[in-house]
Write a structure and sequence with these properties.
Helix content is 72%, strand content 0%. Helix 3 packs antiparallel against helix 6.
């Protein structure tokens, strides 16, 4: 991220946001007494939020990748024209909508695979919480 910023003088926004979210996760973990639960849930929360955003964008009729593709094109009129031309093609729009729906559902399923509750196999830190939740 820093190397790209130094070389191109442009911020890699996804990398920056990912780093900020990870730092917040580590801080929450430290503030909660060193619990590993926030770090374990970090991936599921991010994946679930991205999946939900994709599914909502499909339901609204504006696929998220199509919206994100337009963001860097604001400064380049030629690129913006090409993106607008591609977005106006009904076949391409249907494929983009189907792809976004598949991505969203896959991300939601992935987020649901990792249980958000502690289990006995998570180690001694989580075993008492798992017993309270009757997961043992």
């Amino acid at each position: 991220m820093l190397a790209r910023l130094a070389a191109t003088r442009r911020v890699a926004w996804i990398a920056l946001i990912s780093a900020i979210v990870f730092v917040i996760t580590v801080l929450v973990s430290l503030l909660s007494g060193g619990s590993a639960l926030p770090i374990k849930l970090h991936s599921s929360v991010i994946t679930g939020a991205a999946g939900l955003a994709c599914v909502i964008s499909v339901l609204v009729g504006r696929p998220l990748p199509a919206i994100l593709a337009r963001l860097p094109a604001f400064s380049d009129p030629d690129r913006r024209r090409r993106i607008e031309r591609a977005a106006s093609d009904p076949g391409r729009r249907r494929r983009m909508t189907a792809m976004t729906a598949m991505i969203g559902i896959t991300l939601l399923l992935d987020a649901g695979v990792a249980p958000p509750w502690p289990s006995c196999s998570d180690g001694p830190d989580f075993a008492p919480a798992a017993r309270l939740a009757d997961n043992c």
